[in-house]
Design a protein that fits this description.
homodimer; about 400 residues; alpha/beta; Rossmann fold; formyl-coa transferase, domain 3; 17 helices; catalytic activity (chains A, B); Dehydratase (chains A, B); CoA-Trfase_III_dom_1_sf (chains A, B); CoA-transferase_III (chains A, B); CoA-Trfase_III_dom3_sf (chains A, B)
């Protein structure tokens, strides 16, 4: 079958970014088919050497978050360099004029400066707080409340989650803002000025999931429930041979299947009658979660992982073993096949890193490729992209010699 | 200033969903201006009574994730009911024909069935795994590896994060898929079939952030670092009066400001010289994080929170106190003003819940409203939406009497 063009084919985005949110937003647009040009200062932005690093010193983090982009390297302190970035934004055809940035304090990159040169500009500014004060994922997370409900029951101290979830959501919201504004520009011809604050992304999630309303309406201070699911029945269990399994029973059918698999139908039935409760309801399962988990853990602790898998496979129950990241990708791991065979995954050969498994877009689009494309080397597309603005070879050579631009060879 | 229309004005989306991912995807499109019609079976989907609940039994979770949508209630088991949902999708004008669903096992809702009636259909199916096998946030999280690196240092057991981060990202990716496909349909006239698997969303994040490459290339099994930031310097500290502060020093300037604020310039300078290291680099700050945190914690433990705030305010340093959700919204809390005054937040009056603070879209769009709109009551728009398909009052009454549709009054 002939491959179809990706949905955003033709769109051009200029990204001036660092860390996770803006780079992920831009990468997602690139994976959807846009031409995304990440413009960095010479030597790279503050994320260019961020951990984890490959043995060569190349950042695995940077390589992961900039896949499929073009890289242009320009001296941001030089008037000429800034003018080149401005031209990249403004001279980019009807599907261009789109800027995604988390840079702060660079007036020449702001909406007000760029819209002078391109009235239909689409501009997304990612920031910490809506008033422009700085914040990062870790401070926003502390401020909103999730570390106070995460972690083992009875643990007194805040437990930060390691996943930069707010950065991820913020990057995806920024991409949504751009696609919304692009649609509106096609209809009305008007551009758009937008901003996304990391703090707002986290606060919105706390509100959307009912955490804020529970505190305000019910006057509840939510506590830690460890690995239990609030308001339902889910928990991790240890098998006889030390395996660890997460088990989730959301529906009546899940619960019924779990009792059959663990041979607890009669015991739980007797318990329900004597307590006058109904464990087919989520409310009662949550209320008596420790009793139920106590019964279930006896079954898990006398059953080997392989037998647990046999008993649970084919039931409606939602369950998974726990894996380390290493178990997903190391050659001899039984979990590797599932990852390597995933149609979203592919092998990229990244300079300074080598060949490794990398993800494409987690949206499967019928007929279109999901193959991951390696990240550029810093400055790899400086000449080709600036050449596209009409700069001659002699002009580029002059800019190079004066240090205004840099390619990847230097 | 006259308010501008929102970017997705005119777009019509039919959502058949439950839980977090699909409802959040649909709500985000609604917040961007689309008309989103959530169609539920009579009595509601499995998320309709999900915790947390208001004292009335109304789900704060459902109310939070369905703001600004229309609600239609139809008997999914009846041929007539299914035909009405099909018409809602197919007879919805040039900007309609868009379906977002995480329903499984409903053939009549799948792409193949609906495209027969609308060739330019845009259809996103949210699923657990790419092969259609089920999974939820909690099982995907266990499978990918984050619980093995989250939680206190030295803790042996997996620590699940409480935030359903994969659901959130999955919902946002599904909305991005729809906007990408909508753009392509405007250009080519063709529709699109898409799917987003929750597992893929989590696996992509692990890859994008470098966790998979670190395991594969460096053969590292990442361990827990508690609330330390991997590869940099960040940690939480306790103040003399029991306050808790998250402190992040990403750049040289952050670090320098932190040392000045905590009166540690000379001590750290002597330490650097004697150890032959350079704490202005992130690598060395991470390597010696426990030594540095030990010095810093002495300052925090002898300083009251109010004085910590004074010392850190005005510096470049990234920091925040920890809050509970309750501290963000209760009347007498010093943190409430910051939330209540946030331009993203508004007060909604939700039936069964009452007036409470709720978030709008975390993307600020110049000139457009961000005011949150309350969630519908189940079936609130059954008559008005189906009336829009041309059904007469008599036809609607007949469907009601035979139990094919239901409004919110019944």
């Amino acid at each position: 079958m002939l491959e179809q063009p990706l949905p955003l084919a033709g769109m051009r985005v200029v990204e001036v970014s660092s860390f996770v949110a803006a780079p992920l937003g831009g990468m997602t647009l690139a994976q959807l088919g846009a031409e995304v040009i990440r413009v960095d200062p010479i030597g790279g932005a503050p994320d260019h050497r961020r951990w984890p690093l490959a043995p060569s010193g190349t950042s695995l983090y940077w390589a992961g978050l900039n896949k499929g982009k073009k890289s242009v390297s320009v001296d941001f302190r030089s008037t000429e360099g800034r003018a080149l970035v401005t031209r990249l934004v403004t001279d980019s055809g009807p599907d261009g004029g789109i800027v995604l940035t988390n840079a702060v304090g660079r007036r020449w990159l702001e909406y007000d400066a760029l819209v002078e040169h391109r009235p239909d500009l689409i501009h997304v500014q990612i920031e910490g707080h809506y008033d422009g004060t700085p914040a990062v994922d870790y401070t926003v997370n502390a401020a909103i409340g999730f570390p106070m409900v995460t972690g083992p029951e009875g643990h007194a101290d805040p437990v930060n989650h390691v996943l930069p979830a707010w950065d991820i959501a913020c990057g995806l919201y920024s991409a949504l803002g751009i696609l919304g504004a692009d649609r509106q520009r096609r209809v009305t011809g008007r551009g758009q000025r937008m901003s996304v604050a990391l703090y707002d992304v986290a606060l919105a999630a706390a509100g959307n999931l009912g955490f804020l309303a529970e505190a305000q309406i019910n006057r509840v201070v939510r506590r830690r429930y460890g690995n239990y699911l609030y308001g339902g029945f889910a928990r991790d269990f240890t098998t006889r041979d030390g395996g660890r399994v997460m088990v989730v029973a959301l529906t009546k059918r899940h619960w019924a299947d779990l009792l059959v698999a663990t041979d607890l139908v009669d015991v739980v039935d007797a318990l329900e009658k004597s307590l006058g409760v109904d464990f087919s309801t989520e409310d009662d399962r949550f209320e008596y979660r420790e009793v139920l988990a106590g019964l279930l853990s006896r079954w898990f602790s006398r059953t080997d992982l392989v037998d647990v898998k046999t008993a649970l496979t084919g039931t409606s129950l939602l369950w998974s073993t726990y894996n380390t990241f290493a178990e997903l990708v190391t050659e001899d791991s039984p979990s590797r096949a599932m990852v390597a065979e995933n149609p979203m995954m592919g092998v990229v050969d990244q300079p300074g890193v080598g060949r490794h498994l990398a993800p494409g877009l987690p949206v499967a689009i019928e007929g279109a490729t999901r193959e991951p494309v390696r990240a550029p080397v810093l400055g790899e597309h400086t000449d080709s992209v600036l050449g596209g603005l009409g700069l001659s070879t002699a002009e580029l050579a002059d800019l190079h010699s004066r240090g205004v631009i840099r390619g990847n060879a230097q």
